[in-house]
C-alpha cells in the first residue's frame, strides 16, 4: 500500500478490525520509509446493479436517490432519518440478494412500499402517488381504501393468510 505522505510503496499492518457492520476491514498501517501511520479500508467490490426505468432506459442503482425519494415522502412527518436509512438498507440488501445484474424500478418501488406502509401511512400514500403515477382520483381513492381496510382489519388479513397457507380456499374474505 502506497504511503499517502511520502508515497513509498511499502508499509506494514499494525492493526486490523472489522468496520461498517462487517462490510469492510479497517487496517492501521505504518510506512516502512517515513514511519508515519495511516488508515486504510478494505471491502468487497460489489458488481454494479443496473436499474431498468419505466421508459426502458438504464442507470446504476443509487441508494442516495432512494433515500431522497423517501425523505420527500416523509417531509413534515415524524419519521427519524435513521429509520429511512434502515429502510434503504433493507431494500438494497433485498435487491442485491436477488443476485441479478438488472432490476426494474417497479420491483424496487414495491419493496419500498411494502416496508413504508408500516413506518408511516401518510408517507406511504405520498410515495405511492408519485411511484404509481395515479392517472385519476378514482385510482388514488382505491389505494386509500385498500390502506384503510388493511389498517382496520390487520387480524382478518392475517387470518386470511393463514387460511391460504393451510390450503383453505376461503382466503381473506371467508370467515
TrEMBL record:
Cofactor comment in the record?
A: Binds 1 zinc ion.
State the superkingdom. Bacteria
Recorded GO terms, molecular function?
ATP binding; DNA binding; zinc ion binding
**Zinc fingers (unnamed) by residue:** 3-34
Keywords from UniProt, A to Z, are: ATP-binding, DNA-binding, Metal-binding, Nucleotide-binding, Repressor, Transcription, Transcription regulation, Zinc, Zinc-finger
Cofactors required: Zn(2+)
Q: Which family does it belong to?
A: Belongs to the NrdR family.
Its function, per the record, reads: Negatively regulates transcription of bacterial ribonucleotide reductase nrd genes and operons by binding to NrdR-boxes.
Q: Which NCBIfam families match?
A: transcriptional regulator NrdR
UniProt protein name: Transcriptional repressor NrdR
Which organism is the protein's source?
Melghirimyces thermohalophilus
